[in-house]
Specification:
Rossmann fold; six-stranded parallel sheet; binds 2-phosphoglycolic acid; 8 strands; DNA polymerase, domain 1; 9 helices; 227 residues; binds magnesium ion; HAD-SF_hydro_IA
């Protein structure tokens, strides 16, 4: 057993983990669908398409709406033009801000590894005034690879000073993409149960699950000593 001597780095996923952004993404998607004369999707449909980044989101939207796949790139471009200003319907999940503050006060280097593109990522972190808490931020377009590829999480961990071969760190996420990415690094994975996952939690590899951010503090200390 390796015990983390210093407070270990903690990397967070964004959509469905720190923020409930599905209502803003849903509104942007439907604005674009309206522009292209395509019937709207429900919030549940759009939420179920989030996790793999914007290209996969639009691939799923085009398939679900039986739209000509030739329009996908133009729809994605119209979506991107709106995405970084879409903040008004997004909320931090309960107790996120307090928990991040306590982890930072305890000396944990904090990072973000999201499949959301960097521009809307930084915009929403600025909107909530929490961007400065994160020492390293990797967006869905920061590298050629996206989660579940391990490269983005490895880059986030390296940016926080974790050992490249044996990172003593914790990744906190909500989805299949996060679970597979953490397993591929490998790094202990802690899953937020109120996120956007489509698979039962017990079918995803994870060290621990939590349904309230106040419970995360204890889990991080446990995860860091068992890493
Ligand atoms: O933008 C997405 O599809 C997912 O973003 P996430 O990696 O923060 O969950
Ligand atoms: Mg997520």
């Amino acid at each position: 057993m390796n015990v983390c001597m210093a407070p270990c780095p903690v990397v967070f996923d964004l959509d469905g983990t720190l923020i409930d952004s599905a209502p803003d993404i849903h509104a942007c998607v439907n604005a674009v669908l309206r522009e292209f004369h395509v019937p709207p999707l429900t919030l549940d449909q759009v939420r179920s398409f989030i996790g793999g980044g914007v290209e996969l989101l639009w691939k799923k939207i085009v398939a679900a709406t039986h739209t000509d796949p030739g329009k996908q790139q133009d729809m994605l471009a119209a979506f991107m033009a709106r995405y970084h200003t879409a903040t008004s319907l997004t909320r931090l999940f309960p107790n996120v801000e307090e928990t991040l503050g306590i982890l930072a006060d305890r000396g944990h280097p904090l990072g973000i590894c999201t499949n959301k593109p960097l521009r809307p990522t930084e915009a929403i972190l600025d909107h909530f005034g929490i961007r400065a808490l994160f020492g390293h931020i990797i967006g869905g377009d920061s590298l050629a690879e996206k989660k579940p590829d391990p490269a983005p999480l490895r880059a986030a961990l390296a940016g926080l000073g974790a050992h490249p071969e044996a990172p003593q760190a914790v990744f906190v996420g909500d989805s299949e993409f996060d679970a597979a990415c953490a397993a591929a690094v490998p790094v202990p994975f802690v899953i937020y149960s109120h996120g956007y996952r489509q698979t039962p939690i017990d079918q995803l590899p994870h060290l621990a699950a939590f349904d309230d951010f106040t419970a995360l503090l204890g889990l991080i200390e446990t995860a860091s000593v068992s890493a």
